[in-house]
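Morning!

This is the sequence you dropped in the shared folder:
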Amino acid sequence: MEIVPPEERDSLGYGEVHYLTHRGVVKPGKNTPLRVVFNASLGKPSLNDCLHTGKNRVPLMTDILMRLRLHRIIITGDYCKAFLHIKIAPQDRNHLRFLWGENLGADDWLLQFLRWCVVVFGVTCSPSELEMVLTYHMQQFSPRFSRTVAMMLRNTFVDDVIGGGEKWEEVEQFLREANIIAKDAKMTIQRWTTNDPHLQAKLDAEVAGVPSDPKSDVLKLYDSSLKVLGSVLNRANGEDVFTFQMISSYNSGHGWMNYNTSRLFVYLATTLAGECV
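The structure's back. Tokens below.
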């Protein structure tokens, strides 16, 4: 982001100007305990109302989950701050202005005029922009890394990357080539997780900077349950089970259902099945 120069704060002579509203979301215990969330849907019309959403080419989550079961070894990761790596054209940045107060409550408090220079999460076209950028960089490597690129194109859900293979060497190759593709886009894939304990120990060792030793208590060893796209896949003791956390209330479009009943369970099951068609 950048500070709007004082001479540009008046919209006259600088084209259309829009200010985003924002609020803080506190999540104690997270790496980022305070996250600022921007709202591009406020107003009539809102900024989102005036933007072209773009095509949704993101694979269905249920399709990805089913394809994962084809692999003996599964590996997942996510792009670190993916949206913040995509720049906005200078002529469009005035649509992404916002106000920020410094030293609020003090006598010398200051009101800052800022604007985003990168894609903002919460703007309706942002997911489509991210998908197009990631797809472009993947396709550049298709001749060299055909298997990895094909798997990433089918199994990348927004900024989550999922891959796998039958052999340990196949998964290592996917990991290595996926990191090369991300680096070409000036991005990083982080939090690599796998259901293979030896590969997970090696990944943890690379992050922690300690020798790769599956028996070391310094390493965070894998416990057989792999969280994928909000669900948990358990491969322990020969099992092959997905588990989902049931919600206590659900907005069906006709009001909120505030308790778990057989009717709610059937409704959610048929909705999920419909996405698989």
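Headline: The helical segments are 61-68, 126-140, 146-155, 168-184, 197-208, 262-276.

More detail when I'm at my desk.
O.
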